[in-house]
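Researcher: Here's the sequence for the chain we discussed earlier.
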Amino acid sequence: MQRLIHTEVSDKKRLHTKLYYFGYETTYSVVIGSANLTMGGLDLNEEFSTLMHGSIGDTHYQQIIDYFQQLTGVSSSA
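Model: Thanks. This is the structure I predict for it:
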């Protein structure tokens, strides 16, 4: 697994969605939802999240990378 990057997006829009990306050599996993990585977010609160897996370079991978770059203004070869 690659390094964990913490990114905060400051904008006039209220963004509450969380995107947790885990990249491996040829595959990735991503969790998209409302939960924070806290006891409340993972255990106590009622939250909604979905888990996706895929291959680096597939359509969803590129959409995730494009979205992240749009939010942060950072271009990267994740």
